[in-house]
Amino acid sequence: MFFAQLKNELWKLFGKKRTYIGFGAFVLVQTVMLLLFKYTHWQTQFERLLAGNGYLASEYISALTVAVVMLLPQVALLTPLYVTLVGGDLVAKEAEDGTLRMILSRPISRLRLLQVKWLAGIIFAAVLTLALGAIALGFARLYFPWRGLFIFIPTPAGTTFGVFPPHDGLVRYVFSHMFMAVNAVAMMSVAFMFSCFNMKPAAATILALSYLFVNSVMQMIPFFEPYQNWFITHHFDGWHLIFRSPTPWGQLFQSEIILLAISATAFVIGAAAFQVRDIKS
Amino acid sequence: MIELRNVVKKFAGRTAVDDLSFTVTRGEIFGLLGHNGAGKSTAIGMMLGQVWPTSGEVKVCGHDVSADRRAALKPVGAIFETPVFYDYLSGFRNLEILSTYTAPTSRARIHEVIDWVGLTGREQSKVRTYSHGMRSRLALAQALLPRPELLILDEPSDGLDPEGIHEMRQTILRLQHELGLTIFFSSHLLNEVEQLCTRIAVLQQGKKVFEGNVADVKAASDMVALKTSDFPGATRLLREHGLITATEQEKFITLAEGRSTAEIIQTLVAAGIAVDGIWRHEQTVEDFYLNLIKPPAAKN
């Protein structure tokens, strides 16, 4: 029954047009980024940066490099927005619409219901991230050759700079998306937690986004530098740390475990709140 | 089938249900009446394990809902006012989804239920294209899927047109006759309650103010209809003889204790007042209900 219930949760989730807004927006922004890179001075700046560091630009202005460039708005803005939108909807929207009352007139435990909903949310977050990584690479390949990967990402915590041969670059690109998927799951889980409380779906999404935003701002304040590990956004850096040489595997695994623990904690808090609340029309 | 014992539910200090107790036995159609906010939906929510009681015990099909909700709700189907579904999916897909929250259900069973409620041919259409009546039938279908023994209906006729209300009433009777279901429902439509229920309970501000058989309610009236050419003269005479205590609407009289209609006829005929008709007035559930919830000042 668990898998039948999960399948149905996925039917409900992927049957809604709203679910595809994220996919559509991502593809649109990726295309804009691709065209900007192709037809503006952006590409020239990249070539200069490579040449200044002693690399041949023609070897690294490639599909992989452009695909990573296309990811930047996705990481910074779109992923948090769309995964929290879906996470915030998972329980609160059903409560608002009244379908939750219909479900809970049946002999399914509240915990089981939340388990299948959370798992459906995890699948959505992972599919969204991985599918968009594949689409970005596919689009970039239409305009750029298959060559090495160049990455340059300056962050307050340090700059990620790397050049990799095509195969090594692709492997890191795939790993990067796996870490991004974990980030997306953590963001979705926070929104899901709020969604389990008695509130509107929009409120759950806004609260989750606020939580992420406050973390992000505090992380950048020098006073909080010794407390970096306490901010969820600090642990979202895995997606570009994988491109550093040598790769800081210890830091990466620590961050991924913390994100998974945050996701599980968010689920437990949400489940506890949902268990004790009254479901009324 | 349903047993509520001293159930109390408080929301943030406000008492929604206050010391409510009643029992619904197998095979009966039990109606819960009350004004908006009287606590009907809260009581139903507690029966379905959606609202947790502050104190007291709620048992459905012999199981405590708070302790063993799954066992309690296994043989239960429920319908709520204004049925809502996943509008962007077909009726059939909605039934498939809802059935997995109870037990594995075959496609044949889903088709059987769709046929029973009369939705055959429209089951693959998206629910957003359904009329209110069709949604009500789909709601009934989802409630019947797990082959319930007990059906809990919260304002099932809410928002339906007169034709839809009639259809719903016939369906409820059919459910009891053909499937032998026990039916518990709340409604504002007193006429519907009168035609369907064997027993009723009335809630007022969360408290039960009445529980009893509909037949007893109808027979409980102490009013007698009197048809005569001189109603004022007749009632004056009857009062002088101490045979009646009150009159109403130039049509009804209330007999004094221990007096009979035969004595009324005898007295009027002896005084030369023709009696065209006299019969015991059978009160409607509506009369009874309105009288029951009337503020004490208005009753006097």
Structural account:
The complex is a heterodimer of chains A (281) and B (300). By secondary structure, chain A is mainly α. Chain A has one domain (2-218, 231-276). Helices cover 73% and strands 5% of the residues of chain A. Chain A is built from eleven helices and two strands. Chain A has helices at residues 2-14, 19-39, 42-52, 57-60, 63-97, 99-103, 110-143, 166-195, 201-220, 238-241, 249-276; strands at 149-155, 158-164. Chain A has a two-stranded antiparallel ribbon with strand order 1-2. In chain A, helix 2 (19-39) packs antiparallel against helix 5, helix 5 (63-97) runs antiparallel to helix 7 (110-143) and helix 7 (110-143) runs antiparallel to helix 11 (249-276). The longest helix of chain A has 35 residues, at 63-97. The two termini of chain A are 27 Å apart. The mean pLDDT of chain A is 90. By secondary structure, chain B is α/β, with parallel strands linked by helices. Chain B folds into two domains: 2-217, Rossmann fold (3-Layer(aba) Sandwich), CATH 3.40.50; 222-281, Alpha-Beta Plaits (2-Layer Sandwich). The longest helix of chain B is centred in the middle third of the chain and has 18 residues, at 162-179. Chain B is elongated and about 75 Å long. In chain B, 39% of the residues are buried. The model of chain B has no long low-confidence stretch (mean pLDDT 87). The interface between A and B is medium-sized, with 27 and 39 residues.
The total count of helices of chain B amounts to 12
SSE-based structural type of chain B: alpha/beta
**Residue-averaged pLDDT of chain B:** 87
Number of strands of chain B: 14
How do the strands line up in the largest sheet of chain A? 1-2
Shape of chain A: elongated
Give the amount of beta strand of chain A, in percent: under 5%
Question: Major beta sheet of chain B, specifics?
Answer: 6 strands, mixed
Helix content range of chain B:
25-40%
The outline of chain B comes out as elongated
Strand order of the largest sheet of chain B: 6-7-8-3-9-10
- Structural class by sheet pairing and helices of chain A: mainly alpha
CATH architecture of the largest domain in chain B: 3-Layer(aba) Sandwich
